[in-house]
Structure to design on (228 residues):
């Protein structure tokens, strides 16, 4: 987990979507820094475990982003714990984490965990609706970034535009602000140009949907991010 601040690029695989063995091999051998297994709907112990078993033979680090306590599967190289900073409900900031720690606190390996402070900026994204977000303006986002770094000292601040391409100027402004906290950007990266543009500001770009739409385009984002 401590190597996360050296990453440039990660692929996010959704356990609720199908991927062929060949495409999975290409993703795992692409030179990406890590694979995150995570999704919003239909995440179950079975589909997470199945995907983990298929990724595990490869050398690429594989992390589980926990979205459902029932789907926690042992064996991953690390676990990402989202908190949704712009949710309007405390449930997504503290209550589900509290419930999980109350249940499993005695056996949790704390060193394998990292908290992600999400700021969700696409109102059409499933995660935005699922976690009852409001749309923050740029000043709000900056304040969340400062909270992430200075008050909560989070390892990750995640600008999440899932499904749509975001605002590079805002990503740049937030990147200028963060020194200790690693900035993840995710959303709508489909081309090497987009990968380069967001990689110029964010520490790590997260590439998801395009894997399932155009595998060659997805693979081309790795080199673009690495060469920026
Ligand atoms: C989703 O941030 C990731 O959680 C990636 O977004 O699926 O739009 O690439 P896309």
């Amino acid at each position: 987990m401590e190597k996360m601040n050296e990453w440039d690029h990660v692929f996010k695989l959704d356990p609720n979507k199908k991927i062929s063995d060949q495409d999975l091999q290409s993703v795992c051998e692409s030179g990406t820094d890590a694979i995150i297994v995570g999704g919003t709907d239909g995440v179950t112990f079975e589909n997470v475990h199945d995907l983990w078993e298929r990724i595990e033979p490869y050398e690429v680090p594989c992390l589980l982003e926990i979205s459902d306590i029932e789907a926690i599967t042992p064996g991953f190289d690390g676990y990402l714990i989202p908190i949704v900073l712009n949710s309007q409900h405390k449930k997504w900031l503290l209550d589900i984490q509290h419930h999980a720690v109350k249940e499993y606190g005695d056996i949790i390996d704390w060193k394998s965990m990292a908290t992600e402070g999400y700021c969700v900026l696409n109102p059409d994204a499933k995660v935005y609706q699922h976690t009852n977000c409001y749309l923050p303006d740029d000043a709000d986002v900056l304040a969340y970034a400062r909270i992430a770094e200075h008050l909560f000292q989070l390892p990750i601040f995640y600008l999440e535009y899932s499904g749509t391409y975001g605002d590079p100027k805002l990503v740049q402004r937030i990147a200028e602000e963060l020194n200790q906290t690693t900035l993840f950007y995710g959303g709508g990266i489909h081309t090497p140009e987009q990968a380069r543009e967001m990689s110029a500001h964010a520490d790590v770009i997260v590439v998801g949907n395009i894997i399932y739409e155009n595998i060659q385009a997805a693979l081309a984002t790795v080199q673009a991010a690495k060469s920026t």
Observations:
- Strands lie at 9-13, 34-37, 62-65, 78-84, 113-120, 156-160, 182-186, 204-207.
